[in-house]
Give the backbone structure.
Amino acid sequence: MLMTPEAVYERSAMVLAAGRAGALGHFSVNDDALEPTAAYVAGVIRDNYPTLTVPYHARWRHFVVDGEDRWQAIADRLDVEPSERARIRFDLAAVSVLLDAGAGPRWGYRDARTGRRFARSEGLALASLDAFVAGLFSSDPRRPMQADAEALRSLTADALAAAFQADSDNPLDGLDGRVEVLRRLGEQLARAPHYFGSAPGRFGNLFDRMASEAACGPLPARHILVAVLDALAPIWPGRITLGGINLGDTWRHSAVRTGDATDGLIPFHKLSQWLAYSLVEPLEEAGVAVVGLDGLTPLAEYRNGGLLVDCGVIVPKHDGVRERTHAPGDEVVVEWRALTVGLIAELAHHVRRALGRTADEMPLASVLEGGTWAAGRRIAADRRADGGPPIRVVSDGSVF
């Protein structure tokens, strides 16, 4: 019940309704700011994509450095069949997305090619791409560009720190948490051959399962997410379980009332959804038609949420919201994330109207990319010297 995009929408809507009723403890909702925010986002889209042809929100965008698509340059040299190319892209997307939790304000990655230092998501993306190409996640020296069970299970914090240039002078928040998630992924690749094949278990083999599902027709995007949630459920740090199932990025909020065993629980599945979005293009490149992109939800993360706070749509009710640093499970953070899901979904309609586009012409994945994520980053850079979010959350390497 909680491992679906519908559950994310439905339970976020409960928190949003409470916000509009003035019944939340930490935030109120200012609907009058929605239209000005949509105008701001539409302006960012026009600046970035003058033709209004916007790609999907996916990890692949972060591999572009100074106009050069680093992944595409590598892909152009691959001499493999289309299905193996898709498996490689699945492998890369998985490790890169799972390493994409918040890096913290002090960490950065020095690019060997340009000498530039990249922080946050861009730095994490470039570091993960370089590590992937170098074979950090593969146990087979002949096939360095894969993510398999043996290599991931044996990954060490020292190895990942070295690959990401992390040390006491360049600390990466949640390093141990990232290593633990990847080790758990390795264990799951070995124990779930129905998803990941065998000898070795490899995340990329999930492509074959999805391609076979699409043999009789287009693949709904929600099926990608549901498969990812089911296949990866055991890898998340132990938080909340229900019926023996690890619920992953699921938390508690007092505004969620269902009267059953899931009372008070609200899922977000941020990294799983980020991964699902990032698997669409490899599938399409391999000839698999993907439909229903708006069946996925906005990502409950700090760029989307920060945009709404900075633009005055989500309004803190007390000084502690901004002044304190919060844990991911604190109700203030859960509340912020839930409001973000519901309000970004609504904002997308306003943005499309401002641009004269339909949902088919500009799906949610493109609104996010063009879009709310880019606008959130822009306004953060304008408001704060470090470009960070307006609300501080401790990163454990598995959520933000």
